[in-house]
Amino acid sequence: MAVTLIVENLTFRYQSTPVLGGVNLEVKKGEFWGVIGPNGSGKSTLVKNMAGLLLPQEGVVFLEGWDLKSLIRSTLAREVAVVPQDTMTGFNFFVEEVVGMGRAPYQGRFQRESARDRELVRRAMELTGCMELKDRHINDLSGGERQRVILARALAQEPRLLLLDEPTSHLDIGYQTEIFDLLNRLNEEERITIISVLHDLNLAAQYCHKLLLLQEGRVYACGPPEEVITYENIKEVYRTRVVIDRHPLTSTPQVLLIPESREKDRLEEIPYRRLHFIAGGGSAGELFRKLCSMGVQVSTGVLNIGDSDWQEAKNLGLQVVEEEPFSPVGEGAHRKNLELLKEADAVVITGVPFGYGNIKNLEAALEACRAGKRVFILDDLSYARRDYTGGKAAEYLRRIKQEEGACSAGSREELLRCLKE
């Protein structure tokens, strides 16, 4: 696949204020990229450098192998079109006139529009659903309608690269979906390469092939959405805790905010700041979420990769001791589990089924209990119904319960009450 755009070691400053430092990026023909990052991270400045509207102090931007600085404006405008944040125009032109302005790079100073110009303007309006708006004034339109018109003007330039700076920042979710569905069609059907600045991480994950995450003017992460939108990256760059889930239809990563908990005032009632879970099979997900919302540091293990509790822990960014799918707990994972148990203030054993593959988790819990750790056991269902070891797991649980630091609870609510005692 041919390369459309290469950014090499790009550095940009506004007077003495550094905005971008050493940015590198390679965009191949036909790709759909999203540029994300907090306010002030340099997203819009990067797009303006890609468009040739700003010139970097260091580094270079190559378009189809040509240094942007060497291209005259009309030549560049035939290759690259820009859709800015602000879609208001100084004069209240008719929509058809605004779209027609996209043909300016192909026209001489006093040249009238040709039949081809008119055909391309018509096609751009049809692609963007603007035909019914052509006789209306641009500033009389809604934000979503105006955005479609400005996009049509960009398409009339016949660009191979389309740059957009937060094209849906002031639009409701209906218009946001409409604009990005349209961009997706242009990318797939017209083979236009697209780079868009976005604030909405879920839109970025849903529509973009690849993402560039900026932090303070530098590339923090770059790649497919599932590699860029992770708990660790969002926490580090945006300085906020989130849950990363999967879209139920497309499996793309989705960011869920964690609001300030209503349980916050009651957090001081819980004396344990670090809890380690012996879990699995979906037995602990609800407790993970509840305790994390209360500010408790949670770890868990050993869990097989792909287990539902493993996935929930990953979504929440918890520390997880993991083992390969369908594999028994190995010595390496067992030792890591013991290390986390030592660091925890207390241990929670949920209603997970036990077989010979995960029996070492109970062995580790018994060792922690004998070392003086509090161990809380969730007995919401009889362990006899979850013991697939011929009674070995039940024996471990019996011995744990006999230790001074053990406490049993019959429900999640009772377990939370026990944790506060």
What percentage of the residues does DSSP assign to strands (E)? Answer: 15-25%
CATH fold-level topology of the largest domain: Rossmann fold
The biggest beta sheet is recorded as: 6 strands, mixed
What's the architecture of the largest domain, going by CATH?
A: 3-Layer(aba) Sandwich
Q: What is the percent of helical residues?
A: 25-40%
Question: Based on CA inertia axes, which overall geometry fits?
Answer: elongated
Query: Quick check: average pLDDT?
Result: 88
Count of all domains: 2
Low-confidence stretches: 262-267
Contiguous helical run count: 15
Structural class: alpha/beta
Beta strand count = 18
In the CATH scheme, the class of the largest domain would be: Alpha Beta
Give an account of the 3D structure.
- The chain has a 6-stranded mixed beta sheet with strand order 6-7-8-3-9-10, sandwiched between helices. The protein has a 6-stranded parallel beta sheet with strand order 15-14-13-16-17-18, sandwiched between helices.
- It contains 15 helices and 18 strands.
- The radius of gyration is 28 Å and the shape is elongated.
- Residues 262-267 have low confidence and may be disordered.
- Helix 11 (308-316) links the parallel strand 14 and strand 15 (319-323).
- Helices cover 35% and strands 25% of the residues.
- The protein folds into 2 domains: 3-243, Rossmann fold; 264-420, NAD(P)-binding Rossmann-like Domain (Rossmann fold, 3-Layer(aba) Sandwich), CATH 3.40.50.720.
- Helix 4 packs antiparallel against helix 5, helix 10 (285-293) packs parallel to helix 11 and helix 13 (359-370) runs parallel beside helix 14.
- By secondary structure, it is α/β, with parallel strands linked by helices.
